[in-house]
Amino acid sequence: MAFVTDSGANMVKAIRETFGAHKHIPCFAHMINRVAEEAIRKTSGLSDIIEHVRNIVKYVKKRQDMTLELKRKQIESKIPDEKALKVILDVKTRWNSMYYMLERFLDLAPYISDIIFCKIDAPTMLTAVQLNTIKDVAYVMRPLEAMTREASAERYVTISKIVPMVSCAIDQYKELGVTSTIADELKRNITLEIEKRFGHLEYNMLLAVSTLLDPRFKNLHFKKPEACAKAMSRIRKFISEYKSAVTASSTSSEDEEKVEFDFWKYHKSLAHTQIKRKKTDGDDELTLYLSAPVNTLKVNVLETWQEMQGVYPNLFKVAMCHLPIVATSVPSERLFSKAGATITQSRNRLHGSRLSKLLFLSSIAGTKYWN
């Protein structure tokens, strides 16, 4: 159905020339990373403050006595030993690690200030104005971190969240207020980068169709009517192809053979009776589906579609083709990281087949398995 890659020119070209541009989806996490990096780079004075924080964190992190002193200061402040925090050093290729570094530094700033004040070779502590700037910067970057975390999951539907999340982020930045001039400039730069990089997302048919077929969003977050209309036309084309390939009678008989025993089948039929009664001869499945109220954000999308299968049988097939697509390449990168953590120096003779089994066992939800 689709290929999700980062923005590397060689990757994009390979997919587009081999399978077509319509099957390519840019990794949403990488795009957010570019938004954050470019916005920070264009914000005057921000990189210097971040580098200042990074130097302090490095100084504390590389010295064992400083780490122990930081822990002791927290315990003296009535913080339990097991809840004492450590500084976090960022990884420059991952912008969200920088966000976590700033958040943790703000939490530990009072203790760090007391410690490095007595150290001759320590970097100077940030001023109150700089700390306020860091606080505002972290506040401005919070929506980007939430988007990255939400889109990088692998146990629930993510592809249909892209368009709604961009819409929500734009609205958040319109209402977000800060006191620092640097943070205000960062907010403007982030808004410009979002509009630049995500302005045409609705015209990506895979994203648009997936969003429309998510019962939680449907067409609520579409800003461009022509893109929404184009996606609806594409869905109707899919439905028409399904109808021409299989007759309605054979489809219903096959479905009845595959359905397992469901005690609540009668309740589900009653729940959708009102929708069925409203249907007229001129209404197709998509029109009927879009006219129904949206679901809450907490529902399981795939389970909801299983319940709606009897009302929208052809639309169900389209949804099952699009919704399982992942929004980012993070799950595959995470799998490579797990493989690297499994093949350690003391386990370097593991065969590929055994490694695959170990990775499979560790990926099963609810299992208590350690490599």
Describe this structure in words.
- The structure is a single chain.
- The chain is mainly α and 371 residues long.
- It is built from 18 helices and 2 strands.
- β1 (3-5), α1 and β2 (24-26) form a beta-alpha-beta unit.
- α5 packs antiparallel against α6 (128-151) and α6 packs parallel to α8.
- The chain is globular.
- The model is unreliable at 251-256 (pLDDT under 50).
Present the secondary structure layout.
Layout: E1 3-5, H1 9-19, E2 24-26, H2 28-42, H3 46-62, H4 64-76, H5 95-116, H6 128-151, H7 162-175, H8 181-198, H9 205-212, H10 225-245, H11 248-258, H12 265-271, H13 273-278, H14 285-291, H15 301-308, H16 313-322, H17 330-342, H18 352-363
Parallel strand pairs: 1-2
List the defining traits of the structure above.
metal-binding; single chain; 64% helix; globular; 2% strand; mainly alpha; 371 residues; zinc ion binding; 18 helices; two-stranded parallel sheet
Distance between the termini: 33 Å
Query: What Rg do the Cα atoms give?
Result: 26 Å
Main-sheet strand order equals 1-2
Largest sheet: 2 strands, parallel
Mean pLDDT: 85
Order of helices and strands: EHEHHHHHHHHHHHHHHHHH
Instruction: Tell me, briefly, the overall form.
Output: globular
Short description:
InterPro entries: HATC_C_dom, RNaseH-like_sf, ZnF_BED_domain_contain. With 371 residues, this protein is mostly helical.
